[in-house]
């Protein structure tokens, strides 16, 4: 509290002091103005103007009213004038010497001779040296020098700091190291290398490599411990080292794809590309054909009329159909009805059944007995069958092998073979310089990955706007129209 | 009978598979993260044999994974890192929203990252496994290294890819492993033999990218992430196998040669070194500097009889390969500015040639155009103003064709303004009886050491060859064939007469027919074969006839194509003559 009060007091004192100083300056300036030598830049306003309204009566025993009602226009004007003079001329005009204010007019200087001497060069120079208008506008045009920033030269606790620095110098000269520094020195350097290794990205162009296959795996501890703490790498199953396709990584383009091909190989490649195109075209045509409108399905006048009239004209067919349905129902019900078999009938049927079974069994037995004499033909037929199965197995295996080279169906989309890279005979460049590359290697690699079943074929995700765009006319735009 | 009723889809294939979404939920990952994980770990979707059983009675197409695979993924430490990353992003967003910059900085510093080293080791247990799968990695890295440094992927990835591909090319140069090159309309195909494995890769042409929209760059970037790691480790191992320093260093001699005053014009100091490396013009520093690699000789084993022959053949092959590796040795080649510099420099250096280019084209040029010792100047424009007498001005295809033919081809066909012979694919391997284009036949003849002759003779040569081929196939009719050939020659002469041309008259001194023991032996063999055929039973005979018929048909077709080609060539020639007139 005390401190704050003191502060306030101090502040008040300061303001008072300031006021006093300002008043002194004002007085001085007014004194100057009253002197006959002082020049006013602005013409003084008419005193009659100032006292145009009726004079107000106010109590002057209050400070508040002094400030409110005393007329300080003349002072303000005067001060404004002084400032203007200082700004434009760099000081009061009255204090300037005559030489700096006036000059002797000798008439027109002899321009013609000078201009005749070097007219062209001068012109050019002038143009080059003329500053930009924007710079002129932004130029500092007041002649009053900017006030010095006192704080820039002051330093809090300057004396103390100076003293400390001096002492430190003395100690350093003696060779005494301060405690703080000693502690810093004592501190172990942080192992920066380890940290760097952690944050190194995989694609760092200066990354280091080492002999990964030469190093024996270092056994850094008990395998049981490693396994239990999840630090041991799980062995990769052998199955994963098989490639999902037998195709080579790089399929070399056919010889017709040379930049300067042999005519036949080029023709062969063209033929291949042509066949692919024809196939595509056929499929397209097929779809078009299927989509084509059937002429018979189009509405004619007659059908239109019939449609319009439908239901208006009564027809007798309906009743007939109803009758038919009833009859059918009766027939269906009739199936369920049946006459019961008599005991005798059942017995007879059973006897017949048994007899039939016996007959068949006997027949089988005789057949088996007979087969003894057919051994040879049986053997032949067995062999034939075996051969057949073998052939089929072979076929199936061959098919499987062929399938291995084919792209599999791995997702929603089927693999689509890229277009063959082909240059027509008139596109072929005779020389390497004029060669225009066909196709894109990036696409080729990407398709190759898909073809070898390493990734599933996908299509680019379509951008879907969640909300509809709203059109809002901007105000600035509306104002123009 | 009786017992508890079996429920559907609780055993069998239905339990072996899991749908993608379920797998994702089991791993608690978002779909992009799940995809990344699968790619990195090499877990691929699987098409079940009986979809209806697996899909609980529905036949809707879905993506399935094997349940065991997903269980295996559960143990992967990277999964945890993915989850950490998710949390990191969330925190970072929050800090940004609150404009807490110190927090942002702290979070950034502790950004969770993961390593793929263990994945590489796990997926490729041995170095050879990795080499077998390097094709893909190379293609991807070469592709990414040509991308413009725009927003398609991280600039760092592009830089890393560039570094790795440059390292790979330098290795191929140092080991002289390149075998085939093919300039196609799509890009450049290279094939190298590295440690006995054939490695093929595709390099896109420079500046030919329009980014296709139907390529998922996120997936591609994930593959690249894996492959850069793989390629780096493979490079390391390969460099060490040749005793080269691994982060590759230029030879000290080369460094001093390449030192130039105005280096700063090309690149910043930090990038200068890799630029020089990628210029491919200097050799690399070795760990133990040996003057010259001593030729490793095949070990000699005491063998007898048939093995001896094989051994000799192998030795011959070895020598031939060694010679091929030094194809361009001693040649001093200069590249004009319009030819593809990197590709040509790579190929030429792979076969020991010296190569340079204009200073303003690229850093690392070793000599200038004015050098008198240049032997070949590769130009790809119709004509050139200032020509030096003591060098050949040839088109770039010559280099590639030489590599594929494994010999230095005659330069006449490749001079400036000359219509080039077709660039044949070295990846096609013709079986006997297939149609072989005449250009290839010519090259084959050159390989055998025969001199190229005038065209007319060439034609007859071709025919001879074909007849030779036929001879090989069916020796039984050898004699008849010969007669046929003679008849053909006669017919041809007659034809030429009828056309009004004077037949080439050659007077050859008569020869005494000598009983040739080798010939006799051959005849004997043929006789034996004929007898063997006679002794075949019905079934075998049928099979044999079938095979022979197939072969003959092939030959017939090839002959037809050859005739067609000849007709075409003649037509072209006639056209040319007309235009000349």
From TrEMBL, chain B:
Q: Does the keyword Coiled coil apply?
A: yes
Ordered alphabetically, the record's keywords are: Coiled coil, Nucleus, Ribosome biogenesis, rRNA processing
Task: State the SUPFAM superfamilies in the record.
Answer: BRCT domain
Keyword Glycoprotein applies: no
Composition skew (Basic and acidic residues), residue ranges: 488-498, 512-525
* Cellular component aspect of the GO annotation: nucleoplasm; PeBoW complex; preribosome, large subunit precursor
Alphabetical list of SMART domains matching this protein: BRCT (SM00292)
Q: Which residues form the BRCT domain?
A: 323-416
Q: Where in the cell is it found?
A: Nucleus, Nucleolus; Nucleus, Nucleoplasm
Q: Which InterPro entries match?
A: BRCT_dom (IPR001357), BRCT_dom_sf (IPR036420), PES (IPR010613)
Q: Which CDD domains match?
A: BRCT_pescadillo_like
The record's listing under Pfam families reads: BRCT_2, Pescadillo_N
Please give a single GO biological process term from the UniProt record.
Answer: maturation of LSU-rRNA from tricistronic rRNA transcript (SSU-rRNA, 5.8S rRNA, LSU-rRNA)
Region (Disordered) residue spans? 447-525
Explain the purpose of this protein.
Component of the PeBoW complex, which is required for maturation of 28S and 5.8S ribosomal RNAs and formation of the 60S ribosome.
Q: Which family does it belong to?
A: Belongs to the pescadillo family.
Q: How does it assemble?
A: Component of the PeBoW complex, composed of BOP1, PES1 and WDR12. Within the PeBoW complex BOP1 interacts directly with PES1 and WDR12. The PeBoW complex also associates with the 66S pre-ribosome.
Tell me the protein's name.
Pescadillo homolog
Name of the gene this protein is made from: PES1
């Amino acid at each position: 509290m005390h401190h704050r009060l003191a502060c306030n007091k101090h502040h008040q004192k300061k303001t008072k002091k300031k006021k006093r100083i300002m008043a002194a300056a004002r007085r001085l300036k007014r004194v100057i103005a009253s002197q006959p030598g002082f020049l006013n830049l602005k013409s003084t306003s008419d005193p009659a103007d100032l006292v145009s309204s009726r004079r107000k009566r106010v109590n002057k025993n209050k400070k508040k009213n002094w400030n409110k009602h005393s007329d300080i226009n003349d002072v303000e004007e005067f001060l404004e004038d002084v400032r203007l003079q200082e700004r434009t001329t760099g000081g009061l005009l009255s204090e300037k010497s005559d030489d700096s204010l006036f000059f002797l007019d000798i008439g027109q200087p002899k321009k013609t001779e000078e201009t005749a001497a070097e007219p062209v060069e001068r012109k050019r120079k002038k143009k080059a040296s003329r500053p930009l208008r924007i710079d002129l506008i932004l130029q500092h045009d007041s002649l009053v020098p900017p006030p010095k920033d006192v704080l820039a030269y002051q330093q809090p606790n300057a004396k103390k700091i100076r003293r400390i620095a001096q002492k430190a110098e003395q100690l350093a000269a003696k060779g005494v190291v301060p405690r703080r520094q000693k502690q810093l020195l004592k501190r172990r350097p942080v192992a920066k290398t380890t940290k760097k290794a952690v944050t190194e990205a995989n694609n760092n162009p200066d990354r280091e490599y080492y002999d990964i296959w030469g190093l024996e795996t270092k056994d850094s501890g008990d395998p049981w411990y490693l396994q239990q703490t999840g630090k041991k790498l799980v062995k990769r199953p052998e199955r994963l080292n098989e490639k999902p396709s037998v195709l080579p990584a790089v399929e070399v383009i056919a010889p017709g794809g040379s930049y300067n091909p042999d005519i036949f190989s080029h023709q062969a490649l063209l033929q291949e590309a042509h066949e692919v195109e024809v196939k595509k075209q056929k499929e397209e045509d097929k779809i078009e054909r299927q989509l084509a409108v059937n002429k018979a399905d189009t509405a004619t006048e007659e059908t239109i009329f019939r449609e319009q009239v439908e239901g208006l004209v009564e027809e007798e067919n309906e009743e007939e159909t109803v009758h038919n349905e009833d009859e059918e129902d009766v027939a269906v019900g009739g199936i369920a009805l049946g006459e019961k078999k008599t005991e005798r009938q059942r017995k007879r049927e059973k006897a017949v059944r048994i007899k039939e079974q016996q007959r068949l069994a006997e027949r089988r037995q005789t057949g088996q007995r007979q087969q003894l004499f057919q051994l040879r033909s049986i053997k032949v037929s067995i062999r034939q069958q075996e051969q057949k199965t073998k052939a089929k197995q072979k076929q199936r295996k061959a098919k499987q092998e062929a399938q291995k080279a084919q792209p599999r169906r791995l997702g929603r989309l089927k693999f689509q073979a890229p277009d063959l890279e082909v240059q027509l005979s008139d596109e072929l460049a005779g020389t390497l310089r004029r060669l225009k590359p066909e196709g894109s290697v990036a696409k080729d690699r990407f398709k190759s990955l898909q073809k070898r079943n390493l990734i599933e074929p996908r299509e680019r995700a379509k951008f879907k706007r969640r909300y509809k765009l709203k059109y809002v006319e901007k105000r600035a735009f509306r104002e123009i129209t | 009978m009786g017992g508890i009723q079996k429920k559907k889809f609780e055993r069998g294939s239905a339990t072996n598979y899991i749908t993608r979404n379920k797998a994702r939920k089991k791993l608690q990952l978002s779909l992009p993260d799940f995809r990344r994980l699968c790619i990195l770990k090499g877990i691929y979707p699987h098409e079940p044999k009986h979809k209806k059983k697996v899909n609980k009675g529905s036949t809707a197409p879905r993506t399935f994974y094997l349940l065991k695979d997903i269980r295996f993924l559960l143990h992967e430490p990277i999964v945890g890192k993915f989850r950490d990353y998710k949390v990191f992003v969330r925190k970072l967003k929050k800090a940004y929203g609150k404009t807490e910059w110190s927090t942002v900085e702290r979070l950034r510093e502790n950004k969770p990252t993961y390593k793929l080293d263990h994945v590489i080791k796990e997926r490729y247990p041995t170095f050879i496994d990795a080499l077998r799968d390097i094709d893909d990695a190379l293609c991807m890295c070469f592709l990414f290294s040509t991308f413009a440094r725009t927003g398609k992927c991280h600039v760092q990835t592009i830089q890393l890819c560039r570094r790795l591909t440059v390292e790979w090319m330098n290795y191929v140069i140092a080991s002289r492993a390149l075998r085939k090159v093919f300039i196609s309309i799509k890009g450049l195909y290279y094939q190298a033999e590295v440690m006995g494995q054939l490695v093929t890769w595709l390099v896109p042409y420079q500046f030919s990218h329009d980014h296709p929209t139907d390529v998922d760059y996120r997936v591609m970037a994930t593959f690249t992430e894996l492959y850069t790691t793989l390629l780096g480790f493979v490079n390391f191992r390969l460099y060490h196998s040749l005793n080269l320093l691994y982060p590759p260093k230029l030879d000290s001699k080369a460094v001093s040669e390449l030192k130039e005053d105005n280096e700063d014009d090309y690149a910043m100091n930090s990038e200068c070194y890799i630029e020089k490396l990628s210029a491919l013009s200097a050799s690399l520093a070795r760990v133990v500097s040996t003057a010259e690699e001593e030729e490793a000789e095949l070990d000699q084993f005491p063998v007898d009889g048939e093995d001896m022959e094989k051994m000799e053949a192998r030795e011959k092959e070895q020598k031939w390969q060694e010679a091929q590796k030094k194809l361009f040795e001693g040649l001093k080649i200069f590249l004009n500015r319009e030819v593809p510099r990197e590709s040509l420099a790579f190929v030429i250096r792979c076969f020991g040639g010296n190569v340079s280019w204009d200073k303003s084209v690229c850093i690392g040029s070793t000599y200038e155009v004015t050098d008198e010792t240049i032997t070949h100047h590769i130009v790809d424009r119709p004509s050139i103003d200032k020509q030096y007498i003591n060098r050949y001005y040839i088109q770039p295809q010559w280099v590639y064709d030489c590599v594929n033919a494994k010999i230095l081809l005659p330069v006449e066909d490749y001079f400036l303004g000359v219509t080039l012979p077709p660039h044949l694919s070295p990846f096609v391997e013709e079986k006997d009886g297939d149609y072989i284009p005449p250009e290839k036949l010519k090259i084959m003849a050159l390989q055998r050491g025969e001199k190229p002759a005038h065209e007319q003779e060439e034609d007859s040569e071709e025919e001879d060859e074909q007849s030779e081929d036929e001879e090989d196939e069916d020796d039984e009719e050898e004699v008849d064939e010969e007669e046929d050939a003679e008849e053909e020659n006669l017919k041809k002469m007659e034809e030429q007469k009828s056309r009004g041309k004077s037949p080439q008259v050659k007077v050859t001194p008569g020869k005494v027919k000598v009983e040739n023991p080798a010939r006799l032996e051959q005849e004997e063999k043929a006789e034996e074969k004929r007898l063997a055929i006679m002794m075949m039973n019905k079934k075998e005979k049928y099979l044999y006839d079938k095979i022979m018929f197939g072969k003959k048909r092939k030959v017939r077709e090839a002959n037809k194509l050859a005739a067609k080609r000849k007709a075409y060539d003649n037509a072209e020639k006639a056209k040319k003559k007309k235009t000349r007139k």
